[in-house]
Amino acid sequence: MPSLTLPECGRYISPPATNEDLEFADLAIVDLSKAHTPEGRAELYPQLRDALRTYGFVYAINHGYSQAQRDRIFDIANVPFTVVPPDEMKTYAANIEKVGYYAGFKARQFWKVDAENQVLDQIEHYGINKDVTRRPHPQALRPFLPEIDAFARHNHFNVVHPILRLLALSLELPEETLVQKHNFNGTGEACVRFMKYYRRTEEEEEKSKNVWLKGHTDVGSVTILWSQPVGGLQIQAPDGRWKWVRHIENALVINTGDMMDFFSGGYYKPTIHRVVQPPEDQHNYDRLGVFFFSMPDDDVRLMPCVESPVLRQFGIQRRCPDEDAPLCAAWRKGRTTTYGRSNLKKGIEHNVEEEVIEGIVVKHYN
Predict the structure, then answer these.
(1) From CA 95, how far away is CA 336, in angstroms rounded?
(2) Which of 20, 182, 241, 320 is deepest in the core (most CB within 10 A)?
């Protein structure tokens, strides 16, 4: 019989949650355990629809991982940043601008946070394709690959696929319509990503007005953030104000990205969010993040699901003519290679900068 003993891993002790009086977004909570039955899905999809069309973010609970399993993943997530030597980090560095995906290490000071004041990011991350065997990994991470593989599969099959079925139902489409575009064994760059946000100098905070990642939308279809207590994530509310996202123990924070905007013809707009300096009582903590970024297969064309009765009634908002719709791979590469690197132009809207990817305007929000 295979051993049930897990490899030893240093414990990551989560900092305490903030006690600051912050303006939190009032986000809905969906119970994913109900997604296993037709009756449960019929109950859930209006909740998910309304939440995503209002704030663009939603919490998910009862997703299938226990608190202990969640804590173990955070232990593993800290390994790339605390155990892997600097020289080995360079060996496994992601060649982001060449390949157009995040696989391996992204070093600090790679992205421009504030080009005018020459402020760069202080974020390291390590990306792992959903097929954990697709690319090599540092020695310290290899013993944990079976657990990371199980985690990737859990996110894909037990979280993303149920969410995609609910979104299809909300559009009055067959349940598997969006699932069929997201195949675990298909060629694509859906990934697990561990991110470490390091504290910055007072000078950097002042120059960038405490913004660690400027307002943006995600590239893919569905993003899963495993909730953790250090604040910093803010979403742009419907009234244009930035509101904090509250930590809920062992909950998921889920939002949609650009590719779902393409598929839904603007019905599910990509969620504008940013990362800022944590609240004052958490200024002495770094921020460890665990994510799953879901994307369709590389060869999927990003076109609206025109067969949807809901979209026909709503009115399809195309970002480009159907004949010019980019493939998933082209959109991912275009957005990934330029993010935080290109020189953005000031947009017409206040505090908005723009760039053009695949002939389509992409906005960044300050």
Answers:
(1) 11
(2) 182
**H helical segments located in the chain:** 38-54, 67-77, 79-82, 86-91, 96-99, 145-153, 161-170, 202-207, 258-263, 309-314, 328-338
**Token pair of 202, please?**
């007072």
Q: Which of 19-23, 68-72, 111-115, 125-129 has the lowest mean pLDDT?
A: 111-115
Q: If 0-12 CB within 10 Å is exposed, 13-18 middle and 19+ buried, where does residue 328 land?
A: buried
**Residues 193, 127 contacting (CB under 8 angstroms):** yes
Q: Please report which confidence band the pLDDT of residue 197 belongs to, taking 50, 70 and 90 as the band edges.
A: very high
Closest CA to 189 of 289, 296, 34: 296
* Token reading at 128: 């792992």
State the DSSP H helix or E strand holding residue 244, giving kind and residue range, or none if neither: strand 242-244
Please tell me the distance from the alpha carbon of residue 215 to that of residue 207, in angstroms, as a whole number: 16
In this structure, the chain runs to a length of 366
CA distance 304 to 326: 12
Half-sphere exposure of 10 (CA within 13 A, CB side): 13
Distances, alpha carbon 316 to alpha carbons 55, 163, 199, 295, 303, in Å = 20, 21, 43, 21, 11
Place of tokens 């199980």: 150
- Read off the pLDDT band of 353 (50, 70, 90): confident
pLDDT digits (tens, 9 = 90+) for 232-272: 999 999 999 999 999 999 999 999 999 999 999 999 999 89
Q: What are phi and psi of 357, to 5 degrees?
A: -120, 125
Q: What is the pLDDT of residue 347?
A: 81
